[in-house]
Amino acid sequence: xxxxxxxxxxxxxxxxxxxxxxxxxxxxxxxxxxxxxxxxxxxxxxxxxxxxxxxxxxxxxxxxxxxxxxxxxxxxxxxxxxxxxxxxxxxxxxxxxxxxxxxxxxxxxxxxxxxxxxxxxxxxxxxxxxxxxxxxxxxxxxxxxxxxxxxxxxxxxxxxxxxxxxxxxxxxxxxxxxxxxxxxxxxxxxxxxxx
Amino acid sequence: xxxxxxxxxxxxxxxxxxxxxxxxxxxxxxxxxxxxxxxxxxxxxxxxxxxxxxxxxxxxxxxxxxxxxxxxxxxxxxxxxxxxxxxxxxxxxxxxxxxxxxxxxxxxxxxxxxxxxxxxxxxxxxxxxxxxxxxxxxxxxxxxxxxxxxxxxxxxxxxxxxxxxxxxxxxxxxxxxxxxxxxxxxxxxxxxxxxxxxxxxxxxxxxxxxxxxxxxxxxxxxxxxxxxxxxxxxxxxxxxxxxxxxxxxxxxxxxxxxxxxxxxxxxxxxxxxxxxxxxxxxxxxxxxxxxxxxxxxxxxxxxxxxxxxxxxxxxxxxxxxxxxxxxxx
Lengths: 195, 329
Fold this sequence. Notes:
CATH class of the largest domain in chain B: Mainly Beta
Structural class of chain B: alpha+beta
CATH topology of the largest domain in chain A: Rna Polymerase Sigma Factor, Chain: A
Largest interface: A-B, 52 and 45 residues
Structural class of chain A: mainly alpha
Order of helices and strands of chain A: HHHHHHHH
Oligomer: heterodimer
Number of domains of chain A: 2
Number of domains of chain B: 3
Number of strands of chain A: 0
Number of helices of chain B: 8
Shape of chain A: globular
CATH class of the largest domain in chain A: Mainly Alpha
Number of strands of chain B: 19
Strand content of chain B: 25-35%
Largest sheet of chain A: none
CATH architecture of the largest domain in chain B: Sandwich
Helix content of chain B: 25-40%
Number of helices of chain A: 8
Radius of gyration of chain A: 19 Å
């Protein structure tokens, strides 16, 4: 989604305003994958993520006449996915007792579970490092790195000061950088020291 | 800086943004860390079936009833499902007033009208639309339109097979199936589109006038058909004038209960017959994929058809609960 230009999103916004179904279908095709991944990152459940995307696109069509082509449609869609996803999490939490839902962040990329994956592989390591970040930092980093949202848009989305977003990203990159250095120095030693 | 262009100027590259927060001496390292994380997000595979299903659901909602709110978990079932069987103009009037009464209890919901031909109707069921257009539905087929029919466009959703005689009133008349859009101004044409069939596709045949045929979600490319032309659109079929074929004498024969099966998968034929005769028809998968041509005729009963079929492809059939099954010798 980060490779899609703002102009393209603007033309989809205009299409929405004119109730143009084929441009809406185009938007769906282009935006679905990235939004699905973002929903998955929050809810960790395929069916729930799929429901969220369905709700978001339906809602987007319902409010199509109020979508302002001057505002970023990309940011709006991420905001909607985030709201629906967090809402879903809140509802789920109500059904789960407090002690089960401890504050330990679950592993986000599901990579540790995949034993077939070579743990020494750099990419796998990086995923683990990202997973180890504190929740908010990880989300800020992922949004900055993979969605094409500006830091100001991320700040609005996460309800943070833009400065805080910058700090999160600086800390995330500093952490990744130090881990990378250590990794290269160790010359690809296999082990589970990262756990 | 105004709100309107902030997101454009500020988003050129988040890396540039980030780098400005670091000491120059650290830039190479930060850039390396940034680049190393490039493609991690594409790692979670997207399930194409889930995506396609969501898309179909969304686009169905978009096309059917603008502005109506749909309830999840009941895909394709809209708030009011008024089933009308139109046999004569008089029953239509009675049914319509009933619909109006029912509608009172659902104030503010957009209404979707459903006209269906019951399974077992061997003669086609006639229908009439609010604009005076009319046509026929084959057994088990169904059309739907909303209250907004005719506002800007006359949109009808079709599952199954129908013939349309479209009245000329200036707005375009669109028939939408699971995979196709057919637009016309005033003409007579048939659409056959059973999503569950082997080699599911839509077949559009024209009797009078001109129609434009496009894929369901992409109306930028279309072909125009004139009388006695037809096109069959599979998922992979190119919309190309080269794929236009002449209609046969029997294309429209189902209105009078006629049968026209030329080189069709047996599975498709059985689906059609079981709708027409309201009977269960089973066959092994290997048989369902074999092709058959049945000479156009009027059959008195389903058994007569089965006798012809079993002779044509050299298989046998026997009676089972609720119907018949073919079995290999």
